[in-house]
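To the team - zinc ion complex, inputs and output below.
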Amino acid sequence: MSDASAQSAQAAVESADQAARSPHQRLMASGHERPEGDRCPICFDLIELPVGPHSKFNVCCMKRVCDGCILAAYRRGMNGLCEFCRTPFTNDNASKLAMIQKRVSKGDAEAISHLGDKNYNGELGLTKDVSRAIELWTEAAELGSLDAHYQLGLMYCTARVSRKTNQGASAIGSRPQ
Ligand SMILES: [Zn+2]
Ligand SMILES: [Zn+2]
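Output:
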């Protein structure tokens, strides 16, 4: 059998298999691709799961860099600088907040979502403000932030979003019953 006919036979088997599945099975088998945001912006490799412990998020550029690129930068003597944008790191909360707010002012969806996280947790000197966090996540979700969609979904799931005001519902499309 030639390569082309072998491929078409394989495709026919796959499409028959797909058709045989129930809508439920098709739904549960879809959407498992890793999002583009899970790629390191330096080496373009997917960051190992779970993403958090295998990477570092830098607020200067809102980029998540993989451990491999952090190690490579360290070996090149690039200490104390963001591996992606080379901004000096800071431990000062006010400076970190200013960096985030600068990107928020430019409409960066990830920065807006991240500021929502900080408001929710009361970090970087902010007062804990769940309502403000939901406002920010709603804005970020409308701009396409996956993290913000996740946070809003979680808020609905745990009933921390007021169902009376329906806050954030437009951003996540529909509301669970
Ligand atoms: Zn990398
Ligand atoms: Zn940076």
